[in-house]
Amino acid sequence: MGALAAGSFLFLLAVASTYRLLAGAQTVTYYRARVPTLVAAFAGSTRHDIYQSRRYLAFGFNHPLFFVLTLAAGIWLGAAAVAGDVESGRSRLLYVRAVDRRHVLDRRVLIFVAAETLVVVAAFMGAALGVALSPGLAGSTAGAARMALCYLPLAWLLGSVALVASAWTSRTATAIGVATAVVVAAYLLNFASLVWAGARAIHWLTPFGYYDPAAAASDVAWARCIVLTATAIGLVAVARHRVAARDLV
Amino acid sequence: MAEPAPLECRQLTRRFADVVAVDGLDLQVDPGCAMGFLGPNGAGKTTTLNMLVGLMRPTSGEARLFGVSPSEPAARQRIGFLPEQPVFYPDLSGLENLELLAELDGRGDSDRARALELLGLSDAALRRRVGTYSAGDVQKLGLVQAVQHHPDLVILDEPSSQLDALAREGFRALVTELVEDGRTVFLASHTLDEVQTTCDRVAVLRRGRLLLTSETGALAATALRRLTVRYSTPPAAMPAGVVEPRLAGNVLSAKLAAGRTDVLRALASDPCVDDVLVEPATLEEALLALYRRDDA
User: Fold this and answer.
1) Residues from chain B contacting residue A95 (CB–CB below 8 Å)
2) B87 touching A, CB under 8 A?
3) Considering CB atoms only, which of A93, A97, A246 is closest to B87?
4) Which of A188, B44, B215, B295 is geometrically suited to a Cys-Cys bond with B22, CB 3.0 to 4.6 A?
């Protein structure tokens, strides 16, 4: 967990502190301020110019490495929440106690939510430090905070996917595999919807469609955050229902 | 109104696809009873225990603990359970694991010290990480977690399979104390001499079906006893009424059905007989005989 938080911190620090190198005068001059669609899609938005200094951090907050670092903890903890206990045999000690299975699961949900939040906060702190070190990004700290805030519901939702998979299977690796496949498919679908007009319709069918860090630089899209959070809560409810009904051996 | 039985199964059935692991099990264990739950490998014992403690749902029928479904936390509050291979948190010490589980039970740890004393698990061992434990120490810790909160019903799956002779003695003392205290013990085991010495009743399961429930002594009494006769000179003929006679020199080994005092009288009156020894059948012999009858 500490390593993932440190990794997220360092990654956003690196992205922010190399602003001049990556998106400064050279690049803007080269493209004459027109951002290629692929690059913009890579930053999660084709509606905003991510080479504007205040939106530039969206590049870091939507980078696949950022997703890997921040989702690894949530997916691993979510996947282990039920399947880990069943696979190890520890369920035979834990779930025979006088506690409701769902309460045990609720504790696990709190742990993965806290873990994901910790890693995202670490990423924000890295971004904030990077902004302080990059004169060209002056004033972007608040935007970075909004990006992190908008990202949290997405991270919770994707962790909840792992939780649901864990509630169905008896092997942690299976739950991780299912959750990873869902996340990668959702990311690619969203990417396709951003770069290909024919796929626009699927934009709102993937959770990544509700996360636009470039837009979050100026405003928090509360409605999207609510959709993501509500979906995450719905998935947790599904997992609770399944855990209450399944065999735990 | 009388309190419901600590443990009761009514037509308890569990299927895995086409396999019927437990088939219409009807069983009741009375308060203060120590019942051994016996059966060959694959008989359905562990599946039954898993249903009894709420880890597994029956396909049909029902299990009850003190009149309540095991799926209800309230039913599980009064039980202690030792799984066949207990798995603890390896990075926590033995004591930390016990404290964590006691906290989940919410009934304190009043019996922990006595169980540790009987099983010989030292303070130094308790302070060590469980990851460094031997299989025997893990088993002892498993037994302690099953009884530390003073449960009214203790369900044990192969409780002494990893224990050394000293710890087995402690385990037998632990079960005896539980029963003397009026608590109920349900014990699945392959160690038949242990069941014979600790349990007053046995239930025998085979191919998912209950073959019988019986007093432990009564089950052993149903089997043929072992008869050893020492002659002064080799006998001219085998005595009538004995089963499977084998003569080695002057010593005859055979089996003898219960109630055959006529055979014993005949042997006693034979001037060539120096000594006669009749030993009761072991529980193992009784079980093997039971399985043969079931096969027949």
Assistant:
1) 54-55
2) yes
3) A93
4) B44
**Is the pTM above the cut of 0.90?**
no
**Is the pLDDT at A30 greater than 60, yes or no?**
no
Cα maximum dimension of chain B: 72
User: Which pLDDT tens digit goes with each residue over B86-119?
Assistant: 999 999 999 999 999 999 999 999 999 999 999 9
Is the pLDDT confidence value at A29 over 80?
Answer: no
Tokens representing B147 are 């009884």
Report which residue type is found at A48.
Answer: H
Strand-pairing partners, residue B65, are B7, B68
Q: Which residue has the tokens 């006669």?
A: B276
State residue A25's pLDDT score. 47
Q: In chain B, which residue's Cα lies nearest the Cα of A89? A: B87
User: Quick check: A91 and B55 CB within 8 A?
Assistant: yes
User: Count of alpha carbons within 13 Å of A177, Cβ hemisphere only?
Assistant: 8
- In a mutational test of the A interface, the residue from B7, B16, B53, B77 whose CB has the highest number of chain A CBs within 10 Å is B53
**What mean pLDDT, rounded, does chain A reach?**
89
Which among B56, B104, B142 is the nearest to A97, CB-wise? Answer: B104
Contacts of B227 (CB under 8 A, 6+ apart): B242, B252, B253, B254, B255, B256, B263, B276, B277, B278
Query: Is pLDDT of A92 > 60?
Result: yes
Closest-CA distance, A233 to chain B, in angstroms, reads 24
| SS3 assignment, position B240 | coil
Two structure tokens written together for A211: 């996360």
Contact A98 B105 (CB under 8 A): yes
Quote the tokens at residue B204: 């025998």
CA dist list (Å): A215 to A58, A73, A224: 8, 26, 12
Tell whether ipTM is more than 0.95: no
Residue A92 is nearest to which of B76, B79, B83, comparing CB atoms? Answer: B83
Q: In what side-by-side order are the strands of the sheet with B273-279?
A: B243-248, B251-256, B225-231, B273-279
Question: What DSSP string runs through A20-57?
Answer: HHHHSHHHHHHHTTPPPHHHHHHTT-SSS-TTSTTTTT
